[in-house]
Amino acid sequence: MFKRLFSRRIVKISALIIPLILLLAIVGTAAAITNGELDGDGHPFVGLMVAKDVDDNPLWRCSGTLLSPTLFLTAGHCTEAPATSATIWFESDVEGGIPDNGYPDGGPTSVDGTAYTHPQYDPNAFFLYDLGVVVLDTPVEMDKYGLLPELDELDVLKTRRGRQDTTFTAVGYGLQRINPVFVEAERVRMVAHPRLIQINTPGFTGDFSLLLSNNHSTGGTCFGDSGGPNFRGESLVVAGVTSFGLNGNCAGTGGVYRVDRADDLDWLYGEFGAHLP
């Protein structure tokens, strides 16, 4: 995915679709669920979304999680204006289904929905309230769905010993590899297990985000993984959504927007409670 620069070094990691090749020449090197593995049927409720404007034109792609048959959780910078709707695929290998699956416009295996963004979202400081949802027009029935965390559930990690051994499960459809010569823009669902680096510390992460590892040992996230879930451990609890990176190479750490804060849960249950279990 591609990032636009915001707030010094903090960059979004949603992917532009139309000008993809041109941007690759400009942005430079990057990667995706970096050093991850094929997810296969591990998380079938995690999907690839293409945001669209009012005229149904594709804008950019992101990842996200079904919380119920009709509610899809993603990042706010994935649903922000000019996006008004989205088309979503849940195949583990969307790339392999092109062109029969109609990507990126929509086809027999996709579902459409209306996009909504956190009411306090500000594109100039997107990482503060980086949450969005898509309400699907047609229910997608699954055996399991992602789960919302309890209020302030992650605060316990601040004082836990062995914090460096606390892991998350990151899932998304981001680019597999970019280098100055070759680009693999596969839209395939991948999984990695990054470690907790930082939580509730002074600085830009504050109490609204996590910093997770992004290296050859643990894997991490990058372009195209925006909005994708970071499950707590091996559970189905979405601790946060992939939000930002600190450099154009997606190296070192990845930023995750926490979903366990009161403003997030109040908005989700207050506005979309009818779509939640």
Instruction: Provide the CATH superfamily of the largest domain.
Output: Trypsin-like serine proteases
Shape: globular
Q: Whole-Å distance between the termini?
A: 32 Å
| Overall average residue pLDDT | 83
Q: For the record, what CATH class of the largest domain applies?
A: Mainly Beta
Helix content: under 10%
Order of helices and strands: EEHEEEEHEEEEEEEEEEEEH
DSSP summary: helix tally: 3
SS elements, strand count: 18
Low-confidence stretches: 1-9, 17-32
CATH architectural category of the largest domain: Beta Barrel
The portion of residues forming beta strands comes to 25-35%
Rg, Å, rounded:
17 Å
Structural class: mainly beta
Total discrete domains: 2
Report the CATH topology name of the largest domain.
Thrombin, subunit H
